[in-house]
Amino acid sequence: MHDNNRSLLLNRTGTFRAETLGQTALHLVGNLCFALFVVGVLAFTIVAATYRADDPLLLPPSSSASSAKLTAFLTSSTNATFRPDDAPLRTGEDFLNSSISSVSPDDAAVIHLADLPNSNSSSSAASGGADCDAAAPINCADPDVFHLMMCATIESFRDVHFYRFGKPVRGGDGGGSCDMAWRFHPKDAKRAGFYKDYRRFEIARSPSCTYSIVKIGDYHTGVNARKKKKQRKGDHGATAEFVSKKTPSSSSQASDLLVVPVVGEAVNDTLPVVESESKFSSSRYLIYSGGGERCKSMNHYLWSFLCALGEAQYLNRTLVMDLTVCLSSKYSTTNQDEEGKDFRFYFDFEHLRDSASVLDHRQFWNDWALWQKKDRLSLHLVEDFRVTPMKLTKVKDALIMRKFGAVEPDNYWYRVCEGETESVIQRPWHLLWKSRRLMDIVSGIASRLNWDFDSVHVVRGEKARNTELWPNLAADTSPEALLSTLRDKIKDRRHLYIATDESDTSFFDPLKEKYTTHYLDDFKDLWDKNSEWYEETKKLNNGIPVEFDGYMRGEVDTEVFLRAKKQLETFNDLTSDCKDGGNTCRSTS
Ligand SMILES: *[C@@H]1O[C@H](CO)[C@@H](O)[C@H](O)[C@H]1NC(C)=O
Ligand SMILES: *[C@@H]1O[C@H](CO)[C@@H](O)[C@H](O)[C@H]1NC(C)=O
Ligand SMILES: *[C@@H]1O[C@H](CO)[C@@H](O)[C@H](O)[C@H]1NC(C)=O
Ligand SMILES: *[C@@H]1O[C@H](CO)[C@@H](O)[C@H](O)[C@H]1NC(C)=O
Ligand SMILES: *[C@@H]1O[C@H](CO)[C@@H](O)[C@H](O)[C@H]1NC(C)=O
């Protein structure tokens, strides 16, 4: 009977977005101070500039002083909206409030111990009775085993909420282990989105076939449970692949409709293909060609890319994009610009592909070559960025190509979105998420710290050496100063994650007397040769290993920091020096 309960899950619906609009606003405002460190005003400029009443990601005009400030900032100059900054950019998913766990309807979906189906009724008798064969491999499909594994999991991981448990499957070869996957959300997390973990459970069995959990493996050890299994339609109860809380009217697909990332779920970011000639030839395309963004900072690239994508959406055209990325020297270990990177190393192409109309340029040009003549596909060339998207709405040609010359800054793509276009083109910020493969590393680090750690972000590097602009930074971020600043804020013996650009982490050794310190490089195994990340990115890269580069490091470091329970920033929390040096913080605060 309990099998029926197992087959259903929370009823999340499309109303999610509307409900959370107001909360998103709160979230944005609340996060403003923090965001200043991460991107300066950039992300918020974008948010404000692209606000539409029906878009839940964006900042409503009513939300207080900071939005007024942004508006003023925006209207003061169109050119000033792009601010180069080396810090990893906030992306769309960052602006989704975590109503998943903080708002009441969703709390109902959290699985607690008391919710688990009672297992010591009939099934227990069956498995513990005549059928008991203590020598056989553990039957991972046994409801008792499942129940036990769920209980052990809920009891072991106190700082996360569970939303779904996958049915256990056979673990290692010995027959004494089972693998199980689950979907969770950290209790205190401020953002929307789920995480997936799968672990290997070592299970012992008594002669009378009662089970006990000997050990729960580390993060992502339960590889056999990793695959996302499709729920077979028309089957009920017994074939359900997971347990989640029942809501009678919901379907198993309901929660997947939620547009939130699920970190840890298998990524399928294969390039889209056009199914047929007629499909190809009846579609309309936009491509940006050339331009000065190559090898510029990632933020510059994104600012430009989102302008192109915004224009494509405005014109109802498919954006033909080049997924190859040139990594700027500022993030590379060689200190040289590096060609041959892939958009998918850094961003979630699956999300982009599934929620917008995009096509890789190689595929596009192949098809174009095949059918252009036959189907009389025509090209409309635009060589001046001052030709606004609004002037292109009447163009009927299959392809609009914007060509950019060699002269900076007029050859920057984002110039298309300046001026009067700024109020028309919506940069589709919500389509851009960070790579879930990178976020999986973040989740791995946070999981190893049991989602129960504090963090301090310590900026040193160039800035600490430049005493003219940052007179106090070096002293304020010394280990002694840190110890004294943290004393009142972070309890002794806490796990402390130090996100920093200081390359010699032994510099912070004095902090060990009070805290258990952790640094990004302590978790190297999550991206080195034997890691999932390494295997997956290598596959994506035609078998060539991918380097965990400076941009990825910065992104992961920042995201781990953001998942700490207490977060202390360099600027404001550790020093009164301004982020941008001199007296610049006066003007923005
Ligand atoms: C998200 O919404 C909840 C519910 O109103 C609110 O309490 C919470 O502060 C918001 N989260 C953030 C990070 O602002
Ligand atoms: C934008 O800035 C560039 C370079 O600083 C300048 O040449 C250009 O005139 C500016 N454009 C506008 C619209 O302010
Ligand atoms: C299940 O077992 C526990 C203790 O082993 C017992 O307290 C509980 O009443 C049992 N429940 C059912 C439904 O038999
Ligand atoms: C990946 O996604 C594409 C497009 O949605 C689909 O055609 C393909 O079958 C998927 N591949 C796998 C292995 O699921
Ligand atoms: C794009 O499509 C929408 C909805 O179908 C329509 O309202 C809009 O006018 C179209 N825009 C252009 C430029 O064709």
Automatic annotation (TrEMBL):
Region (Disordered) residue spans: 227-251
TM ranges: 25-51
Pfam families membership: DUF7074 (PF23269), DUF7075 (PF23272)
Keywords: Membrane, Transmembrane, Transmembrane helix
InterPro entries tied to this protein: DUF7074, DUF7075
Keyword Transmembrane helix (UniProt): yes
One Gene Ontology cellular component annotation held by this UniProt entry: Golgi apparatus
Annotated DUF7074 domain residues: 136-221
Domain DUF7075 as annotated: residue spans: 278-569
Protein name: O-fucosyltransferase family protein
Source organism of this protein record: Musa troglodytarum (fe'i banana)
Taxonomic classification: Eukaryota, Viridiplantae, Streptophyta, Embryophyta, Tracheophyta
